[in-house]
């Protein structure tokens, strides 16, 4: 079993060092940790001492892309893998049959314990048809009630597996997967064509959908957990959902047949019920406003092609993506 970790980073804060320490302390240690860092001036060289197998590549801000940067990271790892096959370690041919997994993480996701990698890899080893396993996301202790409720809805305590035949029952949820912490089987990754070269958002779900269409399974491994949450402002929610809408409009071959509005309504009902039961009546009012901002962003994103370029860039959380030219 060979496990490589991929972490895109941009202006990482001191907590990034803690992420590297926790990866180093895993019961199953990764073979490599590849960090693709945007803007070298924001990188702290002292972090390179925290993991013996750490490799850092620096890129410029205009080079970053949610899909393209991760795709580049995989290609770098595969090139290194080919080089390794010339070394003495591979002379007996044993490693040729080993499973290769790519663990994608974000810079702000902290492993909840030292068995994160073990749980994700075990989920893939137990099911040879599993193309990807992804971790549970636990809200940070200082997260707001709305964020904690959303995390409980999207990342429950029970594990589950989604298959191609589940699309009629689960809809968009069948393709749900998050590169905040997701482990991809190399064979499935390559068969599905890898991460798209351009993506403003949702590069993980786009690849996940392609994997499912080819008969692979998606495993939600609830025992594997990371601490990760954001308390976005209303405008940040608007920008984020605008990008979600754009990513879905870019890939109608995936999202048109399984619209996400139904899952969004389930989240709204779950959150409203939870807030009412816990008597957070003021938050109910705020949540209603939040839903309006989210839907406005999502709706405009779905119809971005009808908007002027300047407005598109002002609505996006990633305006640089559109400076390279409007997507199809």
Topology at a glance:
Elements: E1 2-10, H1 15-24, E2 32-38, E3 54-59, H2 68-84, E4 100-105, E5 110-111, H3 116-126, E6 130-138, H4 145-154, E7 160-162, H5 167-170, E8 181-185, H6 186-191, H7 203-213, E9 217-227, H8 234-250, H9 252-255, H10 261-277, H11 281-302, H12 309-315, H13 319-323
Parallel strand pairs: 1-2, 1-4, 2-3, 6-9
Antiparallel strand pairs: 4-8, 5-9, 6-8, 7-9
Helix pairs in contact: 4-10, 8-11, 10-11
In summary, what is this structure?
This protein is an alpha/beta fold.
Notes on the protein architecture:
- The protein is of the alpha/beta class and 328 residues long.
- It folds into two domains: 2-227, Spore Coat Polysaccharide Biosynthesis Protein SpsA, Chain A (Alpha-Beta Complex); 234-320.
- It has 13 helices and nine strands.
- Strands 1, 2, 3, 4, 5, 6, 7, 8 and 9 form a nine-stranded mixed sheet that branches.
- Helix 1 (15-24) links the parallel strand 1 (2-10) and strand 2.
- It is globular, with a radius of gyration of 20 Å.
- The two termini are 39 Å apart.
Classify the helix fraction into a percent range: 40-55%
Instruction: State the total count of DSSP E strands.
Output: 9
Level-2 CATH architecture of the largest domain: Alpha-Beta Complex
Mean pLDDT: 93
Pick out the low-confidence regions: none
Descriptors for this entry?
Spore Coat Polysaccharide Biosynthesis Protein SpsA, Chain A, 328 residues, 2 domains, 13 helices, alpha/beta, globular
């Amino acid at each position: 079993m060979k496990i490589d970790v991929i972490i895109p980073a941009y202006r990482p804060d001191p907590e990034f060092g803690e992420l590297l320490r926790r990866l180093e302390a895993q019961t199953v240690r990764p073979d490599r940790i590849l960090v693709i860092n945007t803007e070298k001036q924001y990188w702290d060289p002292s972090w390179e001492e925290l993991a013996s197998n750490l490799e850092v590549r620096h890129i410029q801000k205009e080079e970053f892309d949610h899909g393209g940067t991760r795709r580049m990271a995989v290609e770098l790892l595969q090139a290194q893998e080919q080089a390794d096959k010339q070394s003495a370690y591979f002379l007996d041919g044993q490693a040729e049959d080993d499973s290769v997994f790519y663990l994608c993480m974000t810079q702000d996701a902290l492993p909840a314990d030292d068995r994160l990698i073990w749980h994700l890899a075990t989920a893939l080893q137990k099911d040879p048809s599993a193309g990807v396993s992804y971790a549970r996301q636990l809200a940070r202790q200082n997260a707001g009630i709305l964020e904690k409720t959303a995390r409980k809805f999207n990342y429950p305590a029970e594990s589950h597996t989604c298959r191609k035949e589940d699309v009629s029952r689960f809809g968009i949820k069948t393709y749900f997967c998050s590169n905040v912490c997701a482990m991809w089987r190399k064979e499935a990754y390559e068969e599905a064509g890898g991460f798209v070269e351009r993506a403003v958002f949702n590069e993980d779900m786009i690849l996940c959908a392609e994997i499912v269409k080819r008969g692979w399974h998606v495993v939600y491994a609830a025992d594997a957990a990371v601490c990760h949450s954001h308390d976005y402002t209303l405008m940040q929610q608007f920008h984020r959902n605008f990008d979600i809408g754009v990513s879905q409009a870019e890939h109608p071959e995936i999202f048109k047949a399984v619209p996400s509005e139904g899952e969004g309504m389930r989240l709204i009902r779950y959150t409203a019920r939870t807030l009412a039961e816990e008597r957070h009546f003021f938050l109910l009012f705020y949540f209603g406003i939040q839903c309006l901002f989210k839907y406005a962003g999502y709706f405009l994103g779905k119809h971005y092609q009808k908007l002027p370029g300047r407005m598109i860039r002002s609505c996006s959380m990633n305006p640089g993506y559109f400076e390279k030219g409007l997507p199809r």
